[in-house]
From TrEMBL:
It comes from Brassica carinata. The lineage of its organism: Eukaryota, Viridiplantae, Streptophyta, Embryophyta, Tracheophyta. One of its GO terms (cellular component) is nucleus. It comes from the Eukaryota. This is MADS-box domain-containing protein. Gene3D superfamilies: Transcription factor, MADS-box. GO terms for molecular function: DNA binding; protein dimerization activity. Keywords: DNA-binding, Nucleus, Transcription, Transcription regulation.
């Protein structure tokens, strides 16, 4: 993608929504062609609605991710988190990230508990 940053918020919002639709279509195509489970999480920087998308569902993709090898998956997630430049995020972006991480943490804890129950 070789496009310049869109300064106008209305135009940027429109571009974001179009790009998210395209991303969902690509995720569906990958899932269909490759018989893969696909999960996409996208946090925009302009307080737009984040994208949480999965096929068959984001929850199932996360559960599969956790059940495969929790240790390796957490290590790769930590490596990803290390690449985020927290110093350059605004307070609103940090709050949004914090709230989203709390929600994800709760969902992961529920998924782990459900997996533990299923294994018993």
């Amino acid at each position: 993608m070789n496009e310049d940053y869109v300064e106008n918020l209305r135009h940027r919002t429109s571009k974001y929504l179009a790009a998210m639709k395209a991303l969902e279509k690509k995720a569906d195509k990958i899932a269909e062609l490759c018989d893969a489970q696909v999960g996409v999480i996208c946090y925009p920087t302009d307080n737009l609605t984040p994208l949480f998308y999965g096929r068959p569902s984001l929850r199932k993709v996360v559960e599969k991710y956790l059940s495969d090898d929790l240790g390796d998956n957490l290590a790769s997630l930590n490596q990803l988190l290390d690449t985020i430049d927290l110093d350059n995020l605004s307070k609103n972006e940090l709050r949004g990230l914090r709230d989203s991480l709390r929600k994800l943490h709760e969902e992961l804890a529920q998924a782990k508990a459900k997996l533990a129950q299923n294994q018993d």
